[in-house]
Amino acid sequence: MLDVRDADGGATLRVRVSPRASRDGLAGEREGALLVRVTAAPVDGGANDALTRLLARALRVPASAIEVRRGAAAREKLLHVAGLDAEALRSRLASLAGGAR
User: What's the pLDDT score for residue 101?
Assistant: First the structure.
C-alpha cells in the first residue's frame, strides 16, 4: 500500500524515480513508494521536472501544486501535493490505468 499522508494543506507521497527510462509512466508500487519512470536524465533537475509534469497530468493538478520536499538529488523522494488530502490522492492514483493500487 502506498505511503500517503495528510500534511500542510495537501498530502505527501513517497516516490521512487527511475531516470533515463525508455518511456515516461507509472510502474506500480514498492515498499510504500510509487514507482515512476521518466525519460529525462538526472541532470540539472531534469528528472525532477519530468516527474512533476507527469504526476501533475496524471493527478489532474497544476504542476505548481507538486513540490519535492525531500530527496531532490536522490531516486527516493518525498513529494507534497497541495490541494488534495491523502484520501483523494490515493483515490486518484488507484483510478489511473496501470497505476499503483
Answer: 40
Cβ within 8 Å of residue 85, ≥6 positions away: 6, 10, 11
- DSSP 8-state secondary structure symbol assigned to residue 23: S
Domains of the chain: 4-86 (3.30.1200.10)
What is the average per-residue pLDDT within 3-17? 96
* Spatial separation of the C-alpha atoms in residues 14 and 4, rounded to whole Å: 7
Relative orientation angle of helices 46-59 and 86-95, to the nearest 10 degrees: 90
C-alpha cell read off for 80: 507534497
Mean pLDDT of 52-76: 96
Cell numbers found for residue 67:
513540490
Q: Collapsing DSSP states into helix, strand and coil, what is residue 90?
A: helix
Q: Given the DSSP bridges, would you call strands 76-82 and 25-30 parallel, antiparallel or unpaired?
A: unpaired
Of 81, 56, 87, 85, residue with least CA distance to 68: 81
The whole-number pLDDT of residue 97 equals: 47
Q: Which three cell numbers stand for residue 91?
A: 483515490
